[in-house]
């Protein structure tokens, strides 16, 4: 599948044409990028900014299916920038797939500052979470930080990460839930039984029950509906 939008224009940007300050440090060589978003104008704007930053190749895709095809054709690029709200599938699942296939750096560019989405993106393997409403400078800073091997959160979502996966219990005291406990609670919220949750997570029904008992002790309630309500209110699950 051919790259679309501005990909052709930035495919062979000469390194010497860029001021040294615009080349991501310490990566002096050109870098390759996959941009996945279903809005053509936004993709073009991102591609143009990446070219200014030193991108030599910018591949584009408008959907999960196109992104998978592009990823298969090119192999891992230096960087992927993904929208979470794609028309044909989950952006979070795409983050996980790319990471599992050796993509080293992934930046999420999303419309939502929903706490669950923010946490899910980082748990899936993203190194940055940026909002589409962010200024060009914030986007540039986030991409540069990731290219340098760091992580970055849009300033407006950073407080979400600071709270981790803490859920106020029935006594309003915040309790920390493990990643597995959050997974179990999310599946409870989705209406699954202990057996179904076990099958989904490759656990026995008894182990699922143990997780729920531990969550109940932390939150001060053994009622499944109340546990889910507390976790939703804290933005830990959707």
Search tags:
single chain; 238 residues; alpha/beta; Rossmann fold; Arc Repressor Mutant, subunit A; 2 domains; six-stranded parallel β-sheet; disordered N terminus
What does this structure look like?
This protein is an alpha/beta fold. It folds into two domains: 31-162, Response regulator (Rossmann fold, 3-Layer(aba) Sandwich), CATH 3.40.50; 179-234, Orthogonal Bundle (Arc Repressor Mutant, subunit A), CATH 1.10.10.10. Helix content is 46%, strand content 14%. It contains eleven helices and eight strands. It has helices spanning 7-10, 40-53, 64-74, 91-100, 115-124, 136-147, 158-162, 179-189, 194-201, 205-219, 224-233; strands at residues 31-36, 55-61, 79-82, 106-110, 128-131, 152-153, 166-168, 174-176. The strands form two sheets. It has a six-stranded parallel sheet, sandwiched between helices. A two-stranded antiparallel ribbon has the order 7-8. The protein is elongated, with a radius of gyration of 20 Å. It starts with 6 loop residues before the first helix and ends in a 5-residue tail after the last helix. 38% of the residues are buried.
């Amino acid at each position: 599948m051919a790259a679309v939008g501005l990909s052709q224009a930035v495919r062979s940007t000469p390194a010497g044409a860029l001021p040294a300050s615009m080349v991501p440090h310490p990566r002096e060589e050109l870098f390759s990028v996959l941009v996945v978003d279903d809005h053509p104008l936004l993709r073009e704007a991102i591609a143009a900014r990446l070219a200014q930053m030193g991108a030599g190749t910018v591949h584009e895709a408008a959907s999960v299916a196109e992104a998978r095809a592009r990823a298969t054709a090119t192999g891992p690029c230096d960087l992927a920038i993904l929208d979470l709200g794609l028309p044909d599938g989950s952006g979070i699942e795409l983050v996980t797939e790319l990471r599992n296939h050796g993509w080293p750096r992934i930046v999420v560019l999303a419309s939502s500052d929903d706490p669950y989405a923010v946490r899910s993106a980082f748990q899936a393997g993203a190194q940055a979470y940026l909002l589409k409403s962010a200024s060009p400078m914030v986007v540039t800073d986030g991409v540069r930080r990731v290219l340098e091997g760091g992580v970055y959160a849009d300033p407006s979502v950073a407080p979400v990460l600071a709270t981790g996966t803490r859920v106020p219990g029935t006594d309003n005291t915040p309790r920390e839930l493990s990643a597995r406990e959050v997974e179990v609670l999310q599946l409870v919220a989705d209406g699954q039984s202990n057996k179904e949750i076990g099958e989904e997570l490759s656990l026995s029904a008894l182990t699922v029950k143990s997780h729920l008992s531990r969550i109940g002790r932390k939150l001060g309630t053994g009622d499944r509906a109340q546990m889910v309500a507390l976790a939703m209110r804290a933005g830990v699950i959707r």
